[in-house]
Write a structure and sequence with these properties.
Layout lengths: L1 H58 L4 H16 L5 H21 L4 H5 L1 H36 L3 H8 L23
Helix pairs in contact: 1-2, 1-3, 1-5, 1-6, 2-3
């Protein structure tokens, strides 16, 4: 009888450990999926920038410094290593700042503000920025859940044996950069 109780406790323990390990694997995969979503929206954003720059260039050719800044920021963001969350966040902070400068130019050009292509690009950018913000929040939520699971007892023991390491949040140094780029006029 005692043997069956001991075997039952051991089986329960093994099932619990397997369940916790699988839960950590599932959370890790959710983080990777959430990061992939961020990458997709960043690519859409990067693809939109040259069209936006070219449209503005037609109306504001003498604003070359601002146009160069956005091209440089985009290039730096594209070159950031995709697995380095901090580098991607920093590079995209530069893109957001440059986009704000580019869109501020439009305030000085009424014809540009009325251009249908520019309006379409603004709308697309606004949609992408909203989706990017949602993706960042989802990514950070999955990182929070994963980091909590691997740091709480007994999950920390399983995480050490399974080689799970805490993941980095998608954070911006300047909290004002977390706000969406305002593209309405």
């Amino acid at each position: 009888m005692t043997l069956w109780i001991v075997l039952g406790v051991i089986a329960l323990l093994v099932i619990t450990v397997i369940g916790m390990y699988n839960g950590m694997v599932r959370k890790k995969i959710q983080i990777d999926n959430a990061w992939s979503d961020i990458s997709v929206f960043l690519k859409k954003r990067f693809d939109l920038i040259p069209n936006l720059v070219n449209t503005v260039k037609g109306y504001a050719a003498h604003e070359s410094q601002t146009l160069e800044n956005i091209v440089k920021a985009r290039s730096a963001a594209v070159a950031a290593p995709s697995g380095d969350v901090a580098a991607v966040a920093a590079a995209n902070q530069g893109v957001t700042s440059a986009l704000r400068g580019l869109l501020a130019i439009a305030e000085n050009y009424p014809n540009l503000k009325a251009d249908s292509q520019f309006l379409e690009l603004q709308n697309a950018l606004q949609n992408i920025e909203g989706e990017l913000g949602n993706s960042r929040r989802f990514y950070n939520a999955t990182v929070r859940d994963f980091n909590t699971a691997i740091q709480q007892f007994p999950g920390s023991i399983i995480a050490n044996f399974g080689g799970f390491k805490a993941r980095e949040f998608f954070e911006l140094e300047d909290k004002n950069e977390a706000k969406n780029v305002e593209v309405k006029f």
